[in-house]
Each structure stands twice: as structure tokens, then as C-alpha cells.
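Suppose you are handed a protein chain with no further information: no name, no annotation, nothing but its sequence. What can you learn? This example shows the usual starting point.
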Amino acid sequence: MKQENYNAPSNMNNDITLPACLAVYHPELSVYAYGDLMADEGIDDGDLLRVRLTAVAHDGDIVVAKTNEKIVIRALFTDEQGRQWLVSRNDQNDAMLLTAESGIRLLGTVVGIKKLIVRASAAECQRNIRHTQAKQQAPQPPTDEEVDDVLRTVAPEVQNGRQWYAVYRAMVDYQVQAEQHYVTFCERVRRAVPAHRYLPVAKEIGRMATQSFRKRVALWRADDAPVGERCFAQYLRIAQLTIELLKALSHR
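A reasonable first move is to predict its three-dimensional structure. Written in C-alpha cells, the prediction is:
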């Protein structure tokens, strides 16, 4: 951006004299904005501003003011002490305190903006790109068919009906199975491997959700499991195999 203000040509008198009869009609003029100090207010470099000539402005108005050196476009803001400031939306420029000694004179308020050059907001573009990249990088949930394939792969490891609990818990951890929906899980297993010798029973699967088995597989402990140490190792192996298979699907 070139600069933060509107500079009048050197051969132009910055003072504007109008007939008194026009004062009640709030005459207007057009000025170009330069720089990006008011970009957050929708005013960009090169915009054509419709300025209503007035010496009165309200808190929050975008105003055009004349300082000792230049003409600026700023926001009028009143602080908690009742002092009025001209504020840019860029920390590169300090706010200007309006006092009798400041030499700042209000010329008018911005009442319209004409976009001569249409621009997209850089912040919005970056936000959209980040959102798109996040979606692309996020793991895709496995399909029902893929989950059924996992069940068929794990099934040979299951040596009794209760060991299906390890598969259930792993699927809950990986968010492909709703917690405590034991009937739904058992029905799914029966559809995927109907000929399996040891099919799960919802009531028995629910009974296994105790002690450390109530927690995520990563938090299981042999000394707090509802089965012996040898059986615990079998449950843990089945659960970890299920998680590995599900995790592999997310990287497909």
C-alpha cells in the first residue's frame, strides 16, 4: 500500500469554502483513500469515498480530518474519560487526540464507499485455505464396509464370546462404535462373521465393561482388569490389533 492518508495536490487549497445556503443540504465530495489503515472498516487502498461535509461527527464514525500536515481518514472514538481520538486500525500509526491545541479540524464523515478495485480480504483467504488444508489432512472415517472387513480380520483371534469386548472397546476408542450400544455391536459382528464359532452376546459384553476395561485401551492395566493376567494379554492383543487395522484405514 502506498500511504495511509489522502494527500491533496500541492496546487490545491485544502480549505473548502461553500456558500452559506448550501450548508443545510450537507454537501458531499469524493476523495480517494490511500493505504490500508482502515481496511478492517471495509476501506481499502484506491477506494472512492463519499464524504459528507460536516463539522459534527458521532462516536464510531469514519471521518476525514485535516491536520497541520495532511488530510487523514480515521475512526472517531471517545474513551472512558470522555476524550475524543482519531484512530487508525493499524498500530503503525498512533491515535490522534483531539484538543483545541492539536490543530486537527474535522472536514466530514464517510457515508459511502465505491470499490474501484475489487479486492478479496487477505485474512478471509488465509482462513479459507487453512480450513481446506485442515479438512484434507484430517483422517477420513472408515466406511461401514471397511469396519466389517476389520471385524472379519480380527475374528480368528477371538477364542470366546467375551473377547469380542476387546474389539468393541477398540472400536469405541476409534469412534466407529457408540459406547454402551452393546446390542448394535453384537448385531454388527453377527452380520460380518455369521459363521464365527464364538459370537458375542450383548449382556456378556456389557458385563466386561468394569474396572480398567471401562477405560480406553491405552489405559488398561493388568492389575486392574476383570480377568487374569494371561487372559488380559489376549484381550489387549485383540484390542491393539483392532486399533492398528482401524488406524491403517485413516492413512489409506
